[in-house]
Amino acid sequence: MTASAAAAFEITAADTVLPGSSCTHIGGFGFSLTALSVGGRAVIARTFDHAEIGPLLRQIRPTVLSMLPTALLHLIREEGTTADDFSSLRLCRSGGDKVPEELEKEFRALTGHLVSEGYGLTETGLAARNPPSGFDKIGSIGMVSPGFTVSIRGGDGAEQAVGEEGRVWLKTRSETVGYWNDPKATAEVERDGWFDTGDVMKIDADGYLWFCGRQKQIIVHDGSNISPQEVEDALLDHPAVESAGVVGVHDLLHGENVRAYVVLKPDVPRPTAAELIQFARGHVGYKAPEEIVFLDAMPVNATGKVDRTALKKLAAADHAHVL
């Protein structure tokens, strides 16, 4: 796992790596152990807010930073954050969830650099990256890491053509031996030496992977598959939206309707739900939400991602109340 990551992200003994996420998360322990494995330096943060990460950036001067998109967005928006805080970096990598276009725009405006996307699983390691010395395609999670083989398969198990969406299967020597005391769960994801990620992607003609969503989170509306991340990106492009989470809500007529939960930024004009829906339609058309629910705070899981499971429970409770 560490050998693959070191080669993929070109980490050497000269690097100081700051994984700005929990070491129970692949981005945290993966980059920490990789830095140590090649004789580099790993800086372990106690928390992942500006009060902790800001001083580490200024005092330790890391060369590689890895953070979850939500945490990185909050960091660069914090009052007092400057371009010089990031001037020592040769690579700022983000993964664990889709990197919103708004984060890319704001990070580039502040630092002059890109946020490089990647992809990893605790079960396999860091499976894809945009090559640090190669071309970084904005919006793509990059190319398959050394030591990994990827297969994108349709519902019938057949390999998909270039540009077609399908479920991603991985083969690698760093694959987990199984889930602890759960042979049933292990059997569900392992088949003939391949690991079923449950993630939906497509690959372009240049070999770059594009994350389309997680199979269990895909919203099926009138027979069309809708990725929550794509709708969230559209909403996050609105200047008043701080964070957004999108889920499907059961509907007898349409199968599922798209519901968005939104937290607004303070001290900005407050848009109506109808205005946000219209804004999203201008970006993603029919995929735009039918409903907007405003929240004071967005639920996040242990790794800092938008907790869509919690949002589904909110939606289910609301549905039950309406019935």
Protein described:
The chain is α/β, with parallel strands linked by helices and 323 residues long. The protein folds into three domains: 2-144, Rossmann fold (3-Layer(aba) Sandwich), CATH 3.40.50.12780; 148-212, Luciferase, Domain 3 (Luciferase, domain 3); 218-322, GMP Synthetase, Chain A, domain 3 (2-Layer Sandwich), CATH 3.30.300.30. 29% of the residues lie in helices and 28% in strands. The protein is built from nine helices and 17 strands. The protein has helices at residues 2-9, 26-37, 50-60, 69-77, 101-111, 183-189, 228-236, 273-284, 308-322, and strands at 16-20, 41-42, 64-67, 91-94, 116-121, 125-129, 143-144, 148-153, 166-172, 190-191, 194-203, 209-214, 219-221, 224-226, 241-251, 255-264, 291-294. A seven-stranded mixed beta sheet has the order 2-1-3-4-5-6-7, sandwiched between helices. Strands 8, 9, 10, 11 and 12 form a five-stranded antiparallel beta sheet that branches. A hairpin with a 2-residue loop joins strand 13 (219-221) and strand 14. Helix 7 crosses helix 8 (273-284). The longest helix is centred in the last third of the chain and has 15 residues, at 308-322. The radius of gyration is 20 Å and the shape is globular. The N and C termini lie far apart (50 Å).
Key attributes of the depicted protein:
alpha/beta; Rossmann fold; GMP Synthetase, Chain A, domain 3; five-stranded antiparallel beta sheet; 9 helices; 17 strands; 29% helix
